[in-house]
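Saturday, quiet lab. Running sequence design on the structure tokens for the scaffold JK sent over.
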């Protein structure tokens, strides 16, 4: 009898244990359901061109991003604004940059536009912040890197919805802490709204490494909060001045001695093999030397070639270092079992940088041996930009495709692999609705918490990314943009473009059919004047609706 009683007692004990285990599981399930919202990691490179990643045809080693592309999806026709801060304002607000306050870059806004609505030079009050919305809906929110959306405390990331922020406020800084003693450094860094003196940065500071470590520190600090995260890795690489830890640059010694044309052709060949572009793609024609004022490889002296090649070695080193840092974040997510449930974006903020700029500050060392070190200050220049933007026309800030087309890789939560490519038009404006869609948060329309806001107007990619839709936009979509007088309008397969710099275009509307001429080789404006007329009228409507004002220097 005693035995039986004991048996029952033990059984009920076991049963009660197992039931309570079951309840715990259920609670865990409920908790999981409640926090089914995915984590979001948004990674933005700075001035990285379309062909600079291995997955997009480059000879630069980017194994971590290539693996991300394998696990996710490549968007081959992803568009940004033509430069840094306009794109960043579109990312955060989900609206055209002329509405968000960056109608022109703050540092390039002429007197007649200063203070005009949409030209405030910072993320204005009518702009919603994606971080604010995500935080209101239970996310922990972090940014580490370049902000570029305002210098004042009122426009700091700290008050735009980020729980933790380490930010460079301006568009660029030197990448190392070390700098020539005579150089007047004006960059401002803030952490959670407080200014951090450059002297207080660690001596081994290198931008990309440091931004990564800060982001990991924030992720770690909130690890046990039970909240999903939104982490914005806002890198400054490979924006000028091109500088990299020497070990990275030296990996590329000799690679670029082959010159612009050979490297560019190799990249285009690989892009065709990888299916980034179709085999019959007619790539853009490099600009003529007399028009550009910058020689092709054969026209350079041996000394010029040596400098040019070394600049690209450093640039490649910067990109590989960026990839290694992204690998570090992905490793962290995997080690903490966060990777599967994380929606990951990797994009660049604009196309390759090719503007010819004047001689740098005389306090820097211009010698060959110094290229890429903390004592140097270089740009890759227009010819390497043509390589970086391959197979597209022109570069950052212009109205050419090379300005606004950028590499984009998306990894969807809890999907093992959907590594097909999507070739339809997508925009940085789509990021906000996509993120909110995955997080099951409605996109705020004209008002948010009693405040009038500009209505986000991008398209969610969720259905596309889950293979439930074949396209993001209708085939006859309309999309316009303007920056510093460079204008374009897309209407389905047609594009009109006006280059502000006369040497880069005809000074008139040019017309291209991007269905068969994404390299923008054949200006059809004279052949189809009615089409130009029609599209320029639609451009005018776009400009009126978005408060675009005439840009004059
Ligand atoms: Ca940029």
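Result came back. Writing it out in full:
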């Amino acid at each position: 009898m005693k035995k039986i009683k004991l048996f029952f007692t033990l059984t009920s004990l076991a049963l009660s244990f197992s039931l309570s285990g079951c309840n715990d599981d259920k609670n865990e399930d409920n908790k999981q359901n409640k926090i089914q919202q995915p984590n979001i990691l948004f990674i933005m490179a700075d001035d990285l061109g379309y062909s600079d990643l291995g997955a997009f045809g480059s000879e630069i080693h980017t194994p971590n991003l290539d693996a991300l592309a394998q696990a996710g999806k490549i968007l081959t026709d992803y568009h940004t604004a033509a430069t840094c801060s306009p794109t960043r304002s579109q990312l955060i607000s989900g609206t055209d940059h002329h509405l968000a306050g960056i109608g022109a870059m703050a540092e390039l806004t002429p007197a007649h536009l200063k203070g005009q609505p949409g030209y405030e030079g910072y993320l204005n009050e009518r702009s919603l912040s994606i971080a604010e919305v995500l935080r209101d809906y239970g996310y922990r929110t972090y940014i580490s890197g370049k902000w570029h959306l305002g210098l004042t405390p009122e426009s700091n990331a700290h008050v735009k919805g980020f729980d933790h922020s380490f930010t460079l406020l301006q568009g660029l800084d030197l990448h190392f802490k070390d700098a020539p003693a005579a150089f007047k450094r004006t960059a401002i860094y803030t952490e959670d709204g407080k200014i951090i003196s450059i002297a207080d940065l660690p001596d081994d500071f290198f931008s990309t490494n440091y931004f990564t470590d800060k982001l990991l520190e924030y992720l770690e600090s909130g690890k046990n909060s039970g909240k999903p995260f939104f982490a914005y890795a806002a890198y400054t690489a490979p924006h000028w001045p091109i500088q990299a830890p020497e070990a990275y640059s030296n990996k590329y010694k000799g690679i670029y001695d082959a010159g612009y044309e050979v490297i560019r052709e190799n990249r285009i060949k690989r892009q065709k093999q990888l299916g980034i572009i179709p085999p019959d793609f007619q790539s853009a024609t490099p600009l003529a030397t007399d028009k550009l004022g910058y020689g092709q490889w054969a026209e350079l002296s041996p000394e010029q070639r040596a400098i040019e090649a070394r600049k690209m070695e450093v640039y490649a080193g910067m990109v590989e270092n960026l990839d290694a840092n992204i690998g570090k974040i992905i490793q962290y997510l995997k080690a903490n079992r966060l990777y599967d449930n994380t929606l990951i974006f990797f994009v660049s903020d604009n196309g390759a940088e090719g503007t010819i700029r004047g001689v740098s500050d005389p306090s820097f060392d211009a010698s060959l041996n110094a290229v890429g070190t903390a004592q140097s200050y270089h740009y890759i220049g227009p010819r390497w930009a043509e390589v970086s933007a391959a197979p597209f026309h022109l570069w950052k800030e212009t109205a050419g495709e090379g300005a606004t087309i950028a590499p984009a890789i998306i990894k969807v939560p809890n999907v093992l692999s959907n590594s097909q490519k999507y070739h339809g038009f997508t925009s940085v404006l789509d990021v906000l609705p996509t993120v909110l869609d995955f997080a099951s948060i409605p996109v705020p329309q004209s008002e948010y918490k009693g405040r009038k806001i500009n209505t986000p107007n991008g398209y969610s990619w969720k259905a596309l990314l889950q293979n439930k839709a074949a396209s993001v936009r209708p085939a006859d979509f309309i999309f316009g943009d303007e920056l510093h007088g460079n204008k374009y309008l897309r209407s389905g397969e047609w594009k009109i473009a006006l280059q502000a710099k006369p040497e880069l275009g005809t000074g008139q509307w040019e017309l291209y059919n991007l269905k068969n001429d994404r390299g923008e080789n054949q200006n059809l404006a004279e052949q189809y004047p009615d089409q130009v007329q029609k599209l320029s009228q639609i451009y005018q409507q776009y400009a009126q609706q978005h408060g675009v004002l005439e840009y004059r220097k």
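Notes for JK: Residues 128 and 448 are 8 Å apart (CA to CA). Residues 302-335 form the longest helix (34 residues). Ask whether to fix the surface positions before the next round.
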